[in-house]
Amino acid sequence: MIFETDLFVRDTLRINILKELMAGNISLAVQLDNGAIESYATQIHSDMGRVKVYGNFNMSESTDGEVLTIRPISVDRILKAVPAMSGGISGKKMELVRSSTKQVENTYPFDETFMGLELVPSENKYILRLEYADSVQTEQPVIQEEKPVVQEEKPVIQEEKPVIQEEKPVVQETVKDEKVQKIEEELKKDYTAAQTQLEECKTQLEIDKRVLEYYKDKDVKPVEEIFKEIQQKLDEAEKQIALFIQAQQKKTMEIEGS
């Protein structure tokens, strides 16, 4: 029996098996594409840090030593994970958390019927496939109602065409200057979410810089300049967020004072 759902970049799959992995009650074999099969506990886990960059995935461990989190940071290679567990394992589950809502959308059991998961690239997302044994399946995954991922819609600015009368163009007076209209649209946005996304991008940038330290002297294309541009864009976004938040606060104070 196979269950499928979409998994977008920065969505997370949380599995509360970390304690059992470290104790040896559960083992988890992982593989990228057709590469080497590695044991999470003995070959990927490190006491030096809680976050591991595995291909184009982040694998992070909770501070309480209970939860292993898998999050794609880009759409690239196939990830496979196959468990092996001893008896007496209960209460284990996988939770799909959307980055857009920070809420648990689906919950799946991690028990003796679970045979493995696969993340397969599909355009700008992954297809998450969970396989369960048909013959011994005792409970169905608890699949909560899937909510559509709401993505911010960009305003569509339609170009005004001049009205042609007697072969002479008549220029109509525009209601608002295009630049002023864009500023007003920015003022209407909720910058709380933008601040959160900005902090996540800055955190991810720091994690990825660790990879650069390893590859900077090797025969690969340098990416320091790319990160420099990213940092400049983050700084620009931070300044713009601060500017519009101040404008929103000033406008609110003017309304309250009137």
Mean pLDDT: 79
Strand adjacency order, main sheet: 1-12-11-8-3-4
H/E element string?
A: EEHEEHEEEEEEEEEEHHH
For this structure, the quaternary state is single chain
What overall form do the CA principal axes indicate? globular
Number of strand segments: 14
Outline the biggest β-sheet.
6 strands, antiparallel
Description:
- 31% of the residues lie in helices and 29% in strands.
- The protein is built from five helices and 14 strands.
- Strands 1-12-11-8-3-4 form a six-stranded antiparallel β-sheet. A six-stranded antiparallel β-sheet has the order 5-6-7-2-9-10, covered by helices on one side. The chain has a two-stranded antiparallel ribbon with strand order 13-14.
- Helix 4 runs antiparallel to helix 5 (224-257).
Features of the shown structure:
258 residues, 6-stranded antiparallel β-sheet, 5 helices, alpha+beta
Brief sketch in words of this structure:
Helices cover 31% and strands 29% of the residues.
Topology:
Layout: E1 2-8, E2 12-15, H1 18-23, E3 26-32, E4 38-39, H2 40-44, E5 51-54, E6 57-61, E7 68-72, E8 79-85, E9 93-97, E10 104-109, E11 114-122, E12 125-132, E13 163-165, E14 168-170, H3 178-187, H4 191-215, H5 224-257
Antiparallel strand pairs: 1-12, 2-7, 2-9, 3-4, 3-8, 5-6, 6-7, 8-11, 9-10, 11-12, 13-14
